[in-house]
Specification:
Pfam families: TPP_enzyme_C. By secondary structure, the chain is of the alpha/beta class. Helices cover 31% and strands 17% of the residues. It folds into 2 domains: 6-243 and 283-336, Thiamin diphosphate (ThDP)-binding fold, Pyr/PP domains (Rossmann fold), CATH 3.40.50.970; 246-282, no CATH class.
């Protein structure tokens, strides 16, 4: 069912007066992440991208939970809230549904979002609230000094798993697709151009947009994504997804592509030849079914990250929770008139106590 308010949602937030620059979105707070942290790159990309939206910064809000990434609202010259561990999606949901004139962004980490905040995240995704969620994934708990997180690989040696983690890690993109998220993407902190393009697509999307950002923690998990950042190895490891284009990667000498196995229906990586070129999958981010997007999300090996898709895996139109709720409220007012909060709170059984 198409959302009648899909285009309207993008126009509800007041526009900025005059031209904005990156400087307008920098706060006066000292940035206090560890030197070399990937969060700096993400912050710079977001601050540099915000002027493109042309929105009044007084109508932009960043809500975070707890963790290194959750200091983000301090460094944005917008409204913001450093909230409760794992609860940022819930607080942001209340804000987005009650104030549709705001552009609401959630900043969270793999521990914050996927451990204590797991249920809050998946319900925001399934409801399709008009939120943009930036999930910083460094595969470690950085703020509390290096314990394993819900995305740490099996066997990970940390302070809390001295003999190696026994937990199978979450794949945040797979989780989001399983929750029927209408927009799911993945990018990397150090690829400014790609990160900005994904942020742009997320901002344009009506409904919940989840962007997983691979982010390096150089203190407690340095080099976790090195295979995706090293130019030589990245050619063989990174699958750049573009809607409407064949899913090809690798070098000119050794081109690779993604095909569907005719027997199992699963996706597989093959060396491209004249015989199989016609079988190379064309990426369709707008496919109503999340099946192929989910299969793409499973290509990456959890340990080596070989064959990792980045880009927009899914972008489809679904009814937006904020719009549906607004329609219900309008219908209720039309039928019954505006309610009186004091009358509702008092109810029918009230007494006056005279002392």
């Amino acid at each position: 069912m198409p959302d009648a308010h899909a285009n309207e949602l993008l126009q509800l937030v007041p526009r900025a007066e005059g031209k904005q620059s990156m400087k307008d979105f920098k706060s006066d707070q000292e940035v206090r992440w560890c030197p070399g942290c990937g969060d700096y790159a993400v912050l710079a990309a977001v601050q540099g991208f915000m002027p493109e939206l042309g929105l009044a910064k007084e109508n932009i809000t960043f809500v975070s939970g707890i963790g290194c990434s959750s200091r983000f609202p301090y460094y944005m010259n917008t409204y913001g809230m450093h909230s409760i561990h794992g609860r940022a999606p819930s607080i942001a949901t209340g804000l987005a549904t009650s104030r549709r004139d705001l552009s609401v962004w959630v900043v969270t980490g793999d521990g914050d979002a996927l451990s204590i905040g797991g249920n809050h995240l998946i319900h925001a995704l399934r409801r399709n609230v008009n939120l943009k969620i930036l999930l910083f994934n460094n595969r470690i708990y950085g703020l509390t000094k290096g314990q394993y997180s819900p995305t740490s690989e099996v066997g990970k040696i940390t302070k809390s798993t001295p003999m190696g983690s026994l937990d199978a890690p979450f794949n945040p993109v797979s989780l989001a697709l399983g929750a029927e998220a209408s927009f799911v993407a993945r990018t990397v902190d150090s690829d400014r151009k790609h990160l900005t393009s994904v942020l742009r697509a997320a901002a344009d999307h009506p409904g919940t947009a989840l962007v997983e950002i691979y982010q390096n923690c150089n203190i407690f998990n340095d080099g976790a994504f090195e295979v995706l950042k090293d130019k030589e190895r990245a050619e063989e490891a990174v699958i750049r997804l573009e809607h409407g284009k064949p899913i090809l990667f690798g070098s000119e000498e050794n081109p690779k592509g993604v095909v569907r196995d005719p027997l199992t229906g699963d996706l597989a990586v093959v060396a491209v030849t004249e015989d199989n070129q016609s079988r190379i999958l064309v990426h369709d981010a707008h496919n109503p079914s999340p099946t192929t997007a989910f299969a793409l999300s499973r290509l990456a090996d959890a340990d080596t990250l070989h064959h990792t898709p980045i880009g927009v895996l899914r972008s489809v139109e679904r009814p937006v929770y904020d719009s549906l709720m607004s329609d219900q409220l309008d219908a209720a007012i039309e039928q019954h008139g505006k309610g009186d909060l004091n009358t509702l709170l008092a109810g029918n059984d009230t007494w006056t106590v005279i002392g």
